[in-house]
Amino acid sequence: MPIESPLHPLHVAAGAKFADFAGWSMPLEYTGVVSEHTAVREAVGVFDVSHLGTLMVRGPVDILNTVLTNDLSRLADGQAQYTLCLNESGGVVDDLIAYRISDHEFLLIPNAANCAEVAQRLGRSGLTVSDVTREIAIIAVQGPDSDALVAELGVPQLEYMSFGTAEVAGVQCTVCRTGYTGERGVEILAPVDAAGDVWSAVVSGGAMPCGLGARDTLRTEMGYPLHGHELLPDVPARWSSVSWAVAPDKGDFVGRAAYVAAEADEKVVGLKVTERGVPRPHMVVTANGREVGMTTSGTFSPTLKTGIALARVSRDVSVGDTVQINVRGREVGAEVIKLPFVPARVRG
Amino acid sequence: MTPDDRRFTREHEWVIAMDNGNVRVGITDFAQDALGDVVFVALPEVGSSVSVGDAVGEVESTKSVSEIYAPVSGTVVARNDAVETAPETVNADPYEGGWLFVLQPDDPEAVESLLSAEDYEALVHEI
Question: pTM for the full model?
């Protein structure tokens, strides 16, 4: 039996279609991916992402810094950071958000599928790890109108990538100014027994319920990597264009030696289709008849009204180049673009 | 809900006979609902000759692609270019405005062997 979100009955009542995500039955869509996507770009939407892992970690920051790639010592308490967990060969175990509560207390949000392995690696390094995934619901409120909506519910103003505790609709929550859509927004961590009140208050405040289908089209437009697609355990992190999440100078961490030694032979770029066609993952990319890479994610962009893809390509492919994507036997032209496809509006 | 003025295939297409003996083809309400928001449609060329079961087009949503199969053998005599520019019509009006193409069947009787509305509903019910 798949695991159900604590908000599952509300999703059923709202007419959601469900899909399996790493063993969880989660809403894929309610009214439709396009209208949900558009609500987040133009107004405000709300996502249930309770399937994401929630790990409470206790121990010195210096130890946690040996398991994760980014530098947690650069954060002030109350700030969060995008980071990676690498394996010994420099591949990506997972990508996650790390919240720094204090110099010895952290909250990590790994992907559902990788939560157990991340927890295991943290435990092995001597940290105290408590998996509280099943105790916490995560509600992401995203879109240009999200600030006004959550302010109305009692959330104080937060800087981008910072968090605090707040009473939301009468429920004590942790609220972080993060997201996976490229729009302004917060992610609210609520205790499962009261999470329905938070969700209902956000929906009553005008947010459109959005499924994980729209979350994927939104993140693809931003060029945000997804583990299992752009990030893989058997592909060097160096080849996935995530250097901004790696601090090789901070001191040693698992996978550092392999990361530093790896040649940047490949990279992840954005491909904007210039003809009719929708690319999907694992399609061959060619330039002048020569194979140069493979798509890792692909969909139709509701914002640009054209096919878009993320692709891992050889390093000699440049922004502005024209390439071909083999879409089920048909060569579809695309332009290599500088990511994101749609400008990010997360800050300010 | 399933209109009883036409026939259906196991691939969730509908086929309606027109007065001139040609057949118009589209996808069912069940199919459009399962796909989600249709964002891309590729249709066969007018004049192309197709055999029953051939993949002749594609209907794609943001998350997946579904091939369109020729429900009977014949020649493509018309296509609904409007759904290429406004694919959402397939969701909004699958049985009328969201039609995909028209075939001139090689065998005018072939349509009769397809599923009735009742049989199709039974099929969908099993899914």
Answer: 0.94
CA distance B66 to A330: 16
Closest approach of chain A CAs to the CA of B22, in angstroms? 28
Rounded Cα distance between B5 and A201, Å, is 47
In a domain, A31, yes or no: yes
Residue with tokens 């928001």: B37
Q: Do A302 and B39 touch (CB under 8 A)?
A: yes
Instruction: Spell out which residues of chain A touch residue B63, defining contact as CB-CB under 8 Å.
Output: 28, 33, 213, 216, 299
CB contacts under 8 A, A 200-219 vs B, are: 213, 216-217
Please write the tens of the pLDDT for every residue from A177-224.
Answer: 999 999 999 999 999 999 999 999 999 999 999 999 999 999 999 999
Q: Same structural domain for residues A45 and A59?
A: no
Quote the minimal CA–CA distance from B91 to chain A in Å.
Answer: 10
Residue labelled with tokens 């048909």: A330
Q: Give the per-residue SS3 of A103-141.
A: CCEEEEECCHHHHHHHHHHHHHCCCEEEECHHHEEEEEE
Give helix A33-42 / helix A212-222 axis angle, nearest 10°: 60
Which residue from B minimizes the CA distance to A327? Answer: B65
Task: Collect all residues of chain B within an 8 Å Cβ-Cβ radius of residue A29.
Answer: 36-37
- Of A68, A95, A122, the domain-final residue: A122
This model of the complex carries an ipTM of 0.86
Which residues in chain B touch residue A17, judged by CB atoms under 8 angstroms apart?
A: 36
- Determine the average pLDDT of the residues in B57-61: 95
pLDDT (0 to 100) of residue B1? 75
Angstrom CA distances, A199 to A27, A48, B2, stand at 14, 8, 36
Interchain pair A213, B42: CB under 8 A:
no
CA distances from B109 to A126, A326, B72, B73, B74 (A): 75, 39, 10, 11, 12
Domain of residue A109, residue span: 55-122
Asked, for residue A212, whether it belongs to a domain, the answer is yes
In CATH, what number is assigned to the domain containing residue A89? 3.30.70.1400
**Residue A243 Rama label (left phi>0; alpha psi -120 to 50; beta):** alpha
* A19: CATH: 3.30.1360.120
Percent of chain A with pLDDT over 90: 99
Last residue of a domain, one of A92, A122, A152: A122
Amino acid identity for residue A242 in this structure = V
Is residue A340 reached through a cis peptide bond, with omega within 30 degrees of 0 on the bond before it? yes
pLDDT of residue A131: 98
Structural domain count, chain A:
2
